[in-house]
Amino acid sequence: MKRLLIIDDDPSVVLLLTESLRDEGYDVTGETSAPRALELLQARSFDLVISDIEMPELRGLELLRSITRTRPEQMVLLITAFGSIDLAMESVRAGAIDFLAKPFRIEALVLAVERALRERMLRREVVRLREAATREAPHGLAARSPAMQQALDLATRAARSQLPVLITGESGVGKGALARFIHDSSGHAGGRFVQLNCAALPTGLAEAELFGVRRGAFTDAREDRPGVFEQAHKGTLFLDEIGELPAELQPKLLQALESNTVRPLGAANDVAAEARIIAATNRPLEDALRDRRFRADLYHRLNVVRLEVPPLRSRFEDIDLIVDQVLQRVAARSGRTLLGVSADGMRWLRSQRWPCNVRELINTLERAAALTDHDVLSLADLAHEPVRTSDSVLDAALRSDLTLDELERAYIRQVLEKTGGHKGNAARVLGLDRRTLYKKVAELKERE
C-alpha cells in the first residue's frame, strides 16, 4: 500500500484529502504543522508528499526546500491557491513533481497522485537500470556509445588471443583501463599486470627499469632488481606512451618481444620473460616513423591488434554512465549519499568539450563532490572556477628582474598548477614533448 503524507494548515482540508485518498486505497497521514511534518519525514518514508505551498511556519519554497534538502529523492505534489500559479511553476522547477490549483475536484487530485506515483516508479527503474549498467561496465569503461561498444567488443576478442595490442587515443580517454580489462579477460589474468610509462623513464636507468639489474652491475646496484619484463612474466606488460621510448632502447625491446627473454644489466645469461604486451600511445606512431624517431620493425611488432579509444567529445552518450560510476565510487569511499547531478548540471556536463577527456570529467565530479554539502551536485558546484591567488607569470616578470631561465621555470610551474599536475596536458600547453618536460621538471626539483 502506497504511503502518502498530507500537509496543510487547514484541518478541514487535511481531513477531506485524507479520507478521500484512503477511500482510494492509500495509507494516508495528515499533518497541519510544517515542522512536525518534517519530523515525520525524518522518521518515516512516504511514497508521496502532498503539501500546500503556503504554510504559516514555512512559506513559499521554504517547505519544499526543507523536504528536498533532507530527502532529495522525495516526490512532492504541491497545492496552491489560484493567485500563486507562478510560484507553483517555480516550485516545479525547484523539484516538485506537479501542482494542483485550488479549488480542485477530488478526481483531479486522484489522477495527479496516480501520475506522481507512476513517475516515481519510472525514476526508480531508471536508477536501477543505471546501477545495473554501472556494475556491468568493466573497469569504469562506460560503453553506451557505438564507438566505445565497438572498442570494448574488439578488446574482448583480442583478450582471447596472445597477440600484442596497440591502444591509441588522446590522453585521459581510458587507455589504461582498457588495457587492464584485456588483461583481466585473458588467459594471463592469473599473472601480474605491470605498467610502465615510457615517457617517465629516468635518464640513465631506463634499461634497468625495462630489463632489470643484477647486484654489482654498477655502483648503486646493491641487490638484484627485476625489470618490468621479469615482473610481468606469465602476466601482462602495459607499455604506456610507447612513442616516447628512447631510440637506443627500441632494438632491445624488439629483441625481448621476439625472444621472450631479457638479459638484466650485469647478468651473464638471458632470463625468461613471457608476458602479454599491450602498448599505448596518445599520438600517431606513424608520425614518429616518418621522422625516424620510432623503428618500423618495432612498430609492426606492436601494431598487430589495434584498438582506438574515442575522445569523450565524440561519445556524449557515455557521460551519464560515467557520472553514475564516479558518484557511486565517491559515495562508497566517503560514506555519503550522492544521488546524482541536477538537470542544469547535466546539461552543462554534456555541453563541455572535455579536452582532457574522461580524466577531466572525473576530476570535475570528484572536486565538486568534495567541496559541496549537497547530495545532488548543482551547476554551481560543477562549474566552479578556483579563485586566482596570484598574478600571471608575465605580469610578475614585467614588475621584476626575472631572467629568461627564471621566467621559464615559473611558467612551467604555473602550467603544471593549471593542469592539476598532469604532465601530458602540461606538455601540450607548453609545446614540449613529454621527455623534455620531465627533464625540465627534474631540473626544477634539483634547484628547489
TrEMBL record:
SMART domains in the cross-refs: AAA, REC
SUPFAM superfamilies named among the record's database cross-references: CheY-like (SSF52172), Homeodomain-like (SSF46689), P-loop containing nucleoside triphosphate hydrolases (SSF52540)
Domain Sigma-54 factor interaction, first and last residues per copy: 141-370
Transmembrane segments: none
Xref: Pfam families: AAA_lid_14, HTH_8, Response_reg, Sigma54_activat
Molecular function via GO: ATP binding; sequence-specific DNA binding
Record's keyword terms, sorted: ATP-binding, Nucleotide-binding, Phosphoprotein, Transcription, Transcription regulation
UniProt xrefs under Gene3D superfamilies: 1.10.8.60, 3.40.50.2300, Homeodomain-like, P-loop containing nucleotide triphosphate hydrolases
Positions of modified residues (4-aspartylphosphate): D52
GO BP of this protein: phosphorelay signal transduction system; regulation of DNA-templated transcription
Domain Response regulatory, chain residue ranges per copy: 3-117
Name of the protein described by the UniProt record: Sigma-54-dependent Fis family transcriptional regulator
Lineage: Bacteria, Pseudomonadati, Myxococcota, Myxococcia, Myxococcales
